[in-house]
Specification:
Layout (H helix, E strand, L loop, with lengths): L1 H23 L4 H22 L6 H28 L1 H9 L3 H10 L6 H18 L12 H11 L1 H31 L7 H23 L5 H25 L4 H22 L7 H17 L3
């Protein structure tokens, strides 16, 4: 189970680094993101060159689609983490597997079983708890930072923009998961094609990343470079360790454990070390989401 634990650790690292950048308010996250994709593309290249299976065009096309979605989704995850927190954003990302489940039911006739159907209902309930924002009570702010946060949360614009961003982020994450699911249907051995898939994904995400860095023409600080490299490394390692975990355990054990463990770890670190506050409604949504992820992967 060491591979599963490492997958949980590195899958949470990506989100927590973005949260850390928001907390520090010293580095530019829009600079860190492109460096992350460039790093991931460079790290996946040796894995691709060492693979024994011949690269397939379908795997590359699926990966390219996911890479394009990755680049766009990054800007939504930045906003989501800033305004609803790392824990809630992780819930939305984890439950985005609803989209490939629904699509698979129509395209590949993979009808959900009873447990999965209950899981779908729980997932929708969790997303509603996370996405629907209650109007905050008017309280006297303690300091200038809290005053600004209270003002930001109470603006009419935030009442509709945050749910819209979360829905868009949910759909984008769902599309990336759909690309992964499609890989299993268009290739004889999807796992063997994973290096090709990932190289195409991160190479595709790297192209607009380079354009963005050149267009902004901003000096890259050492801390920004380090965080970008850390994020890219975490991206590749979590993919590697989930495959390693699947070699030693069944998917219906690995996937819910990975999703739930990543959500719990992200929540614990964000609340204990990164000063994130979670409302009672969001906490209930997290608990429902954990139950949903277990049910959605039930056989």
């Amino acid at each position: 189970m060491i591979y599963l634990a490492l997958n949980i650790l590195f899958s949470s690292t990506f989100t927590l680094i973005i949260k850390w950048v928001h907390v520090r308010q010293r580095e530019d996250i829009v600079t860190v993101g492109p460096i992350n994709y460039l790093t991931a593309a460079g790290l996946i290249l040796p894995w691709f060159l060492s693979q024994t299976a011949s690269p397939e065009v379908n795997a590359a096309l699926c990966g390219a689609c996911m890479g394009a979605v990755y680049f766009i989704a990054f800007f939504f995850v930045i906003y989501a983490i800033k305004h609803v927190g790392a824990a809630a954003t992780t819930v939305v990302s984890s439950l985005s597997l609803l989209l490939p489940i629904v699509v698979a039911a129509f395209l590949w006739e993979e009808v959900p079983n009873t447990a999965q159907s209950i899981g779908i209902a729980c997932a929708v309930a969790a997303l509603a708890l996370i996405g629907v924002r209650r109007r905050p009570r008017t309280v006297k702010p303690i300091d200038a930072v809290q005053a600004k946060e209270t003002a930001d949360q109470s603006t009419p614009r935030s009442t509709w923009l945050i749910p819209v961003v979360l829905v868009a982020f949910f759909l984008l994450c769902g599309c990336s998961r759909l690309a992964q699911r499609t890989l299993q249907h268009v290739c004889e051995d999807g796992r063997a094609q994973m290096p090709t898939f990932l190289l195409a994904a991160f190479t595709t995400a790297s192209i607009p990343s380079i354009v963005l860095l050149i267009y902004r023409f901003k000096h890259i600080r050492p801390a920004e470079l380090g965080m970008g490299v850390a994020m890219g490394t975490a991206n590749i390692l979590q993919s590697h360790f989930i495959l390693a975990a699947l070699d030693s355990a069944e998917g219906y054990i690995v996937f819910p454990a990975s999703s739930s463990g990543g959500l719990i770890l992200t929540t614990l670190v964000a609340t204990s070390l990164l000063s994130e506050k979670i409302s009672r409604q969001t906490l209930i949504g997290i608990c429902v989401a954990v139950a949903a992820m277990v049910l959605l992967h039930a056989k």
